[in-house]
Amino acid sequence: MVPVFMPLWAILLVLGPVPGQSVSRQFTAALKSRISVQPPWTNYFSGDTVTLSCHKPGFLLYQIKWYHGGKLLSHNTNTFQVNESGNFKCQADNLLPSKSVHLEFSNAQLILQAPFEVFERDSVVLKCQEKKRTSRSNITFYRNGQHLPHQGTEYHIQNAGLQHNGDYRCNNRYASSNKVKIQVQELFPRPVLLARPSQPTDGSPVNLTCDTQLSPQKSNVQLKFCFLKDNLISRQVCSQDPEYHIPAIRKEDSTSYRCKAGTSNIWKTSRPFQIPVQIPVSQPTLTLRTPRTQAVVGDMIELHCEAPRGSPPILYQFYHENIILGRHTAPSGGGASFNLSLTAEHSGNYLCEATNGQEAQRSVTITLNVIVPVSHPGLTLRMPRTQAVVGDTVELHCEVLTGSPPIQYQFYHENVNLGNSSALSGGGASFNLFLTEEHSGNYFCEASNVAGAQQSEAVSIKVIVPVSRPVLTLRAPKAQVVVGDVVELLCEALSGSPPILYQFYYENITLGNSSAPFGGGAFFNFSVTREHSGNYSCEANNRLWAQQSDKVTLFVTGLTGDRSGSVAAGLTGVLLSMVVLAAGALLFHCWLSRKAGRMPASDPTRRPSDSEPQEPTYSNVSGWVELQPVYSNVNSLGGDVVYSEVRRCTKERPYAVASVPLVPENKGSPVIYTEVKVACTSASKPNCQPPQ
């Protein structure tokens, strides 16, 4: 029983640590109230009185509650006398209720009395009490139905152990007692050796604690403690202190430790405990393992981190620009690796961190430059006009959409290297080319960096050569051109990209045109008359440039033969008279036709030259303004003169070339020209040639 009032020194003593218990275990034990019985039995005769006490170890009691069969009683003192059967328990202040104790008050003639609790190594007394004792009584004790060889009313158990557990009873000659169950409890559990800190570092202090817990019912027992290293007593004398201090533990001290806790008659040894002396990790080294000298997009690289020193297990963490990529543990020490499939975004700074529960260490930062291979480049031609022309400056621009700089660009014409250019910061590059005729063909470019090269699609350039000034050549069958000869006009430009269109002119009037689709020159043939004497020229045009030749003069002489001038003059006069009469009749007929509405009125702006005779023109290419000869031959019966009527007809031009001179539009009435030729007769055959 704890008195209500205690001196101050006694309070301090009670508040002190309980030997043999860790602080945490003492606190746990103090959380539960404790009940005691006096006399220390659980079975009594009816009429006996029992004193129950409630305890709160280490503290003063302020409020007590008593329970009988779960019912709260009105008693509030720390002691309570009872004389009736039932289960009793108490609660001290705000602690947990105590263990329940069952008291039995019996009217039997014989009862067996045993302690409320039995602990290992206790000395236990069992009493067989008779209500009316006689001198002839003979008491016999039984455990689990087996007779115990003993005489007297008391049975003593020395150093109680687990072998003494069981159901006990006693008999005399007249009656049998109640059964009492004996359950031997541990005085304290097997100790556990603890180290603080649990994973000390090399050179740090360590406290070893032999941790166990006495039963609250046996708080008055004093335990002793011994510490062993490799099964050797590390102190010469064991003490009541459950802790052992190591000032500076070393790696070689990481061995097996044990502790023993006990009393004079009972000792218990802890399991062996290996103190894991931790060696802090040293600064790790980060290594980048790449399949080639330069890391390229798509490569699989290995990041390997390893600390030369440090107790395992070691946790490694990998970082890219301070963002964690992943972590790996090396349970037995050594290094760890992390694999990474590279993209363009993986360029940057990398480091790793190693820790084994102590202070973490970081590696030196490593910079990784991930090379992006160049994509297929695009080749662009930048020209001053739609068509590339000799003398122009063309810019070849080559550029890739993706690729790590520096990028080397090379330019090719028909697989011949023209030159190269570098883009140190990325982007494209250009190459300028002054065009000549030989620069026609296919062009492509190639882009390369340390990861490889790519070629563009081919682009074709056709360099147009402007036509040179053409040369006009007249080819005749003989040196002196006479009426009736066929003359060939040859126009040729020595240089110029085909197709070339040639146009032929007589006194700035278009005769016709001819095309040279593959280059070279063009021809124009016609049969000459006296009126074809004059200047001729030609023009060459390849739609880029037009050039005119120098003028060439053609002289056409009259008929050959020895006819007398008087005959010719006479015939000419007669013919001219007939022509005048025919022309007058025709004009009068046209005037009547216009008056009747059958023919449109003539243009009032008609030039006087429209009625004058014009030279006939010939064309061997359709589509241009042409002068077509129309012949109508009238032969007199038996006469020597041939009359030729020539009409000029105009066709529409399907297309026009700006550089080709046009024939002035003739808006007047058709004009009829008459040419007189002398035919040979039988009388003049010796001196006459057939007309040409």
From TrEMBL:
Q: What is its subcellular localisation?
A: Cell membrane
State one molecular function term (GO): transmembrane signaling receptor activity
The residues the entry assigns to the signal sequence are 1-20
Q: Does the keyword Cell membrane apply?
A: yes
- Fetch the Pfam families from UniProt: Ig_2 (PF13895)
Q: Pinpoint the Ig-like domain residues.
A: 33-106, 189-261, 284-365, 377-460, 470-557
The protein's matches in Gene3D superfamilies, at most eight in alphabetical order, are given as: Immunoglobulins
GO cellular component terms attached to this protein's record: external side of plasma membrane
User: Which UniProt keywords are listed?
Assistant: Cell membrane, Disulfide bond, Glycoprotein, Immunoglobulin domain, Membrane, Signal, Transmembrane, Transmembrane helix
Report if keyword Cell membrane is assigned: yes
InterPro entries attached here?
Ig-like_dom, Ig-like_dom_sf, Ig-like_fold, Ig_Fc_receptor, Ig_sub, Ig_sub2
Give the top-rank taxon of the lineage listed in the UniProt record for this protein.
Eukaryota
The ranges of region (Disordered) come to: 597-619
CDD domains per record: Ig
Tell me a GO biological process for this protein.
cell surface receptor signaling pathway
Q: Which residues cross the membrane?
A: 567-592
Query: Mainly resides where?
Result: membrane
* Name of the protein in question: Fc receptor-like protein 5 isoform X1
Organism source for this protein?
Dipodomys ordii
Q: Which gene encodes it?
A: LOC105996509
